Each structure stands twice: as C-alpha cells, then as structure tokens.
Amino acid sequence: MTAVIETTGLGKQYGRKWALRDCALAIPGGHVVGLVGPNGAGKTTLLHMAVGLVTPTCGTIRVLGEPPAAGPALLERVGFVAQDTPVYPRMSVGGHLRFGAWLNPDWDSGLARRRIEQVGLDPRQRAGSLSGGERAQLALTLALAKRPELLVLDEPVASLDPLARRDFLRALMEAVAEHGLSVVLSSHLVGDLERVCDYLVVLVASRVRLAGEVAALRASHYRLSGPRRDPGTLPASQEIIEESHTDKQSTFLVRTDGPVHDPAWTVTPVGLEDLVLAYMSRADDAAARRPRLGVVS
Amino acid sequence: MIRFSWVQFRVQAAVAAVALAAFAVILAATGPHLFHLYDTSGVATCQARADCVSLASSLVSRIPGFYTTMYFLGTGILFAVPLLIGAFWGAPLITREFETGTVRLAWTQGVTRGRWLTAKLAVVGLGAMATAGLFSLLLTWWAGPLDTATALKENNSITFIRLGFVLFATRDITPIGYAAFAFALGVTAGILIRRTIPAMAVTLAVFAAVQIAWPVWVRAHLITPAQTVVALTAADTANLAQGPGNTVMVNPPSLPRLSGSWILNFRTIEGAGHAFNVATVPACVARNANVGVCQAALGPLHLRDVIAYQPASRFWAFQWYETGIFVALAVALAGFCCWWIQRRRLS
User: Fold this and answer.
1) Do residues A23 and A191 touch, judged by C-beta distance below 8 A?
2) What is the pLDDT of residues B173-207, one digit of tens each?
3) Nearest CA-CA distance, residue A45 and chain B, Å
4) Does A71 sit within 8 Å of B105, measured CB to CB?
5) A3-205 is classed in which CATH architecture?
6) Would strands B304-310 and B226-231 be described as parallel, antiparallel, or unpaired?
7) B195/B71 same-domain check
8) Complex prediction ipTM
9) Model's pTM, two decimal places?
10) Which of A54, A72, A82 sits opposite B112 (nearest CB)?
11) Which residues on A lie below 8 Å from B109 (Cβ)?
C-alpha cells in the first residue's frame, strides 16, 4: 500500500522557533494510524501541513501522492477533523449538513442524515449549544459524508469526557469498517489509540521514534526482569529500549525479532502505553545513550 | 459556496434591511409634503424670472425644522453607511473565521480557499453596494427640493452645492463606490491583522481619512477645471477679498451661468492682464479713502476675475469617475486579498 502521508526533511518555523524539524515519515494507507507524541511534538503542525492549512518552511510533504490541498479534487479526497472540532456556533446542525453538501461535490447526504440520527442530534439545534461530544460527532459526520479516502483527525477526543470519547471512537471504527478509509489520528493519550489503531507512529521533538503495525510492535517487545545484570551482556539481537536497575534486580524493555530463551529472565509482554512511554522517554540518539550505559555498568 | 456565503450573511443583511426600511418609511412619510412645498414655492421656474435667491430663501424658511434636521442627519447617515459597512461587514468577514477556528473547517472542504474568499467577497460586497445604493437613492430623491433650494439660497456656497465638498459623496451613485471600497478595505485589514477589533479600528481610521482627504485634495482635479473671465462692475468692487501674499482681490459676482458650479479659485487682473494690485490705486489705500472715490478710480482699470471652476453640468461625469475609481480600488484590494490568502495560509 502506498503512503497516504509522506514527508522528507519537513520543517515549519514560527518566528525563531521550530514547531517541526527534519521530519521524515511515510504513513501507509489502509490503516488506522495513531500519531502519538507529547504536547509540542509537532503533531498539529504536521497534520495542518498534511491538510494544507499550513505551508512548510522547508522539506516536502505529499498526501495521497500529491502536494497537500493541491486543488479541489484533493481537498475532497481528504477529510479533516480539527482540534476542538470548530463549528459555526450560530448555524444549526442541519445548516452544517447543507454547508457540507454545498462545498463538497461528492457529498453523501444519506450518510450524513443517518449519522446525525444515530447520534441523536436535532437538525434544528444550533451548533453553538451542542456539548463537546455532540460537536465532535457533528464534525466527524461532516468529514465522513464527503466520502474521503483519507481521514485526518487532530486530537479529536482530547477534550471529551470518557463516555463521549468511547462513543466517538466507536463511531469512527464503524465508519472505517463500513467505508474502508485510511485514518490518521493524533493523540497524546495512548489509551485511546490502543483501542482503535492498528498502526502507530511515535513522534517526539519532530522525530519519528517508532513506526509500525501495532501487532508487530506487540510481538517484538518484551519486558525482561531478573537478577541484576550488565546491559552489555544482552545478545546483540535484543535492542534495549528502556532499563532500570535496583541493587539486586534489572528490568529491561527490549525489542527483538526472535524469542527470548534465557531462563534467568521472567518475560512479560509490554502494554502499548508502556511501550510508547518508553520510546518517548528514550534519549535522543544512540550516541547520547552509550556513555550513560557505561555509568550503569 | 455562494449559497453558504449568503447563509452566513443573512443576519447582517436582515439588519441592513430593517435599517433601510426605517429610513424609507420616514422619508416616504415626509417626502410628499416636502415636494408639495417645493412645487408651490415657484423655485422650480425661478431662473426665468431671476428671483431665485428670494424664492429659495422663503421656501427654506417655510420648511419645518424637523425636515432640516432630517436633511443633515440623512447626509450624515450616507457618510456613515460605507464606514459602518467597512468596519462591521468587511473587517470581521475573515477575522471571525480565524478567531472561532472555523477556517480549519472551511478550508478543508472541497473548495479552494481562493473560491471560498471570492464567493464571500462577491456576496457581501454586492450586498454592501446594494445597501449603500438604496440608502442613497432614497436620500437623493427626498433631499432633491432642499438641495436645489439651499444651493440657490446660499449663493453657491461650496458647502451646499451638489458638486462640491460635502453633498457629492452622499448623493446618487458615489455611495456605491464608497461602500465597495470600504468593504474591501475592511476585508484587507482583517486578512492582514487577523483580529477583529484592531481590524475594525484600522478600517474606521483609514476610511474616515479617505472621506476627508479625497474631497479636499483629489476630487476637484479629476477633470481639468474650466476657466472663465468675468468683467467686474463698480458695484462688484465693493466685495474685496484677501488674496495670497497680502494682495487684494475682488470677489466674483454671482452669475446665473455659474449657478451650481464648484468655484475652485479666482484671481483679479487689470486691463493689460496683470494681477490687480490695490496699492497702485492711491484713492483706495489713502488713510481717509472714500468708497465712492475708490470705486470711481477702479473703473478705468477694467478689472476682471479669472475663475477656475467645475461647471454644474459635469456633475454626472464626476459621479461616474469617482464611483469608478472607488470600485476599481475595491476590486484591486479584493484581488490582493485572494492572492494573499492563497499564499499565506494559516501561519
């Protein structure tokens, strides 16, 4: 499957501050991709560049093989749900559906009406009086009814309560199952992504720290705990992502393609959240990591 | 996108419609009485009998004070309409979308932002021009008798002629050009500043400056002024005026053929064509100068006034020029906005 979003050397500078720098990534299509990273990692900047709201300072970005927002045709193929799901407060829910129909030639009005009904929104209600969860559902409906190939969502559930969050993600998953679209979804909460994503991209300080299918990531990461050991004694095939030591015990989070046979270890699977946190807190690069390991041994 | 722009503009359009309706009701209720006073005053046919000033004065004195208030208020409203359109329709057009974040919704639909902006500019811009045009149409109709009478009574005072400093921008088609320009100016300020209140303030300040500067420095020069030479009689020389550099000039007499014309400047010359210098006439500058003796001494000089003016007949040429210029400026600003919004994006 070709990449839905592909960037090389992508950067965006605001004043003297870089919001995103040297970003190289290729997000494959046909997945529900979770883009996860701490606040300020550049997730929103990246997604805004992908939908053409922001122009890069340097580097290139291609969306569905074209420069972002290259024309009405591409605009139409990409759905976007912005952070805090902005809507026109004085316009009714039904008004928003008309707005979508007028601005998108391939608008699926049947789908829009069905979804609004399912969610239990009154078409006559003003969008300004909707709850956060209802507003998010309206924004999702607008993005889905234009029948995009790629749906981009920027922190769609960050401001929602747990119930609304669950409903929103469920609605999203139903739509993905029904229409088979590619989804890129950003969040700083791994727990949300765990439920819906089958592909994960971890972005820290503009750099991609981890990218891969969730199943493969789960299958290749283990937590090893046992008597205290020097990290240097681990086999070369086991890449250490995170380590912690007490006087008697060592715990390692390792990445390996093969099984772990060493009987000294208690091997436990790693939850996605721990995995992501481990990559987020990992030192910037290998060169910076080596001396620190020397101190431990 | 046109339909959506209209939906977004509906509330503002309704406010304008209510204001227009109120304006129309007041003018329509008083207009017939005003026209009755005018028709029975004889001012309409005064040129033939050469008693315009007295007839116009008596007409103006018989007009209720309420109408005079409305006359000035209406003229003021016509100055305010483009100003308000620029500040309340133009400036927030884009800034509101930035402030509520809805640009992120609007710019990710299946319409390029160039088309998005063009549609908004077209719908609200035409609405602005129609609103100003209708206000002007109503006032131009209602104020017609008073415009004529005041111009005659005030003896071509530059304040009250239709082709002049003040009334010109509030009658006939010029308000349409001003509304288009003020609207485009507001949108431009909004796109550059991106915050509603500062953009409104800038729009108000810049447009008000244009409203003052344009008549003072520009309007009279849109067409090369006409020139006429008027021979001065002994009686005319009683009207002396201070000229540039301590010279003394003779005010031109009011001539029917100059009625309604916009007198830009004049200079007084002697028989040989030199500028008149009162210091060369001892009878006029002597310590105990006698007016009669002075006037008698001025007679042989054959004093004439050279008057530069814009004839009243050029009123419509000026209307079209000024409207055209401001509509063209509005189109240029709109073009800039479309170019800017595609180049600049959100950041």
Assistant:
1) no
2) 999 999 999 999 999 999 999 999 999 999 999 99
3) 10
4) no
5) 3-Layer(aba) Sandwich (3.40)
6) antiparallel
7) yes
8) 0.85
9) 0.88
10) A72
11) 75, 99-100, 103-104, 146
